[in-house]
Write a structure and sequence with these properties.
Blueprint: H1 10-20, H2 23-26, H3 38-50, H4 60-65, H5 75-89, H6 95-113
Length: about 110
């Protein structure tokens, strides 16, 4: 997040950035991703460990502190995967066929995007 030097609404933009990065906004649990505010991340991490949500012997705090680029999830790709994987999870379709369907959708999506 950043505020453009030439913005006509610098003060408002700065207040928005400060609010978005505040502990109050960052601390609630969300479905995906990690809080970017350190105190909020530590609180979420501690809560996850105490509630048994983290099951791997991984130094999450060390790993997250080394991250430098955000991940942007392509909702179209995710949607295609989630849609095509349902029959597999319901034992209605073999894995190979599921992967083939997913790859077909993704190839079409990439071709249309190019």
């Amino acid at each position: 997040m950043a505020v453009n030097e030439n913005s006509e609404q610098k003060d408002t933009a700065m207040k928005f950035v400060q609010a978005a990065l505040s502990k109050d906004v960052q601390q609630p649990a969300y479905a995906e991703g990690f809080p970017v505010q350190k105190e909020a991340f530590h609180a979420a991490y501690t809560d996850s460990v105490e509630n048994g949500m983290i099951r791997y012997d991984v130094d999450w705090e060390g790993m997250v502190s080394s991250l430098s680029h955000p991940v942007i999830i392509d909702e179209t790709v995710l949607g295609a995967i989630l849609e095509e994987i349902k029959p597999y999870y319901n034992n209605e379709q073999p894995l190979e066929e599921t992967v083939s369907h997913i790859m077909g959708k993704l190839k079409t999506y990439i071709a249309e995007k190019s």
